[in-house]
Amino acid sequence: MKLIILVSCVMCFSSVAFSASVDKSLIFLQKYGYLDSTPISSNKFSRLRDEKNYSKALKRFQRFYGLNPTGIANTETLLALDLPRCGVKDPNTSKQTRHKRYTFMDQSLWKKRDLTYKISKYSYHLDRNLVERDIEKAFAEWSKYTDFTFTNSKSQNADIDIRFERRDHGDGDPFDGPGGVLAHSEVRFTMVE
Predict the structure, then answer these.
(1) Is there a binding annotation on residue 159?
(2) At 67, is the secondary structure helix, strand, or coil?
(3) Which residues bind Ca(2+) 3 (predicted)?
(4) Which of 64, 88, 126, 130 is deepest in the core (most CB within 10 A)?
(5) Alpha helices in the chain (DSSP H)
(6) pLDDT (tens digit, 9 = 90+) per residue, 32-73?
(7) Are 183 and 87 a contacting pair, CB within 8 Å?
(8) Hey, is 95 helix, strand or coil?
(9) CA-based Rg of the chain, rounded to a whole angstrom?
């Protein structure tokens, strides 16, 4: 009798864990553009259609991240869902091919190669000198692998504005706290561009 209860408990916990992982992946797929955000239907036909769409969206995510495209929320996929990431939706998530990550729709954003940056808002928790040094090192590393150079500028017209923000920071895309979205970028064009 004790064995049966233990097996039942393990099966219940496994079912709850699986359900939670599907919920988590569903939220992620909607948030990052793999799945539209329409509510899940309750009738049988619509649920079947929703399951097919979910599986297709999960396959697109898996391809984009270089995983085996099974359409199943397996351990490898769930680990990829937990990786810290930029808050911007992944590009071209509706296509069936793998894409370069960290590019702006596979196009160069700037016509010029010598870019300026400024840090307009610092973190309260980090030393300013360390922040400046680490950002300078990061740009130096990028310069090694791209045709861009990056120069620190105090100008209001710098090409790149770096700000350390929390939660809702006025752009309509709030950060979700520790362990969630680490950063995101916005593309802003002037009237000249």
Answers:
(1) yes
(2) coil
(3) 176-177
(4) 64
(5) 2-31, 44-64, 75-81, 128-145
(6) 888 876 655 555 445 545 788 888 999 999 998 899 999 988
(7) yes
(8) coil
(9) 22
Phi, psi values for residue 79, rounded to 5°: -65, -40
Report how far Cα 166 is from the mean position of its chain's Cα atoms.
Answer: 17
**Helix axes 2-31 and 44-64, enclosed angle (nearest 10):** 70
Flag whether 106 is marked binding: no
Burial of 155 per CB tally in 10 Å (0-12, 13-18, 19+): exposed
Residue 9, annotated ligand binder? no
Structural tokens at position 93: 């998530």
Beta bridge partners, 86, equal 183
Written as six digits, the tokens of 35 are 């799945």
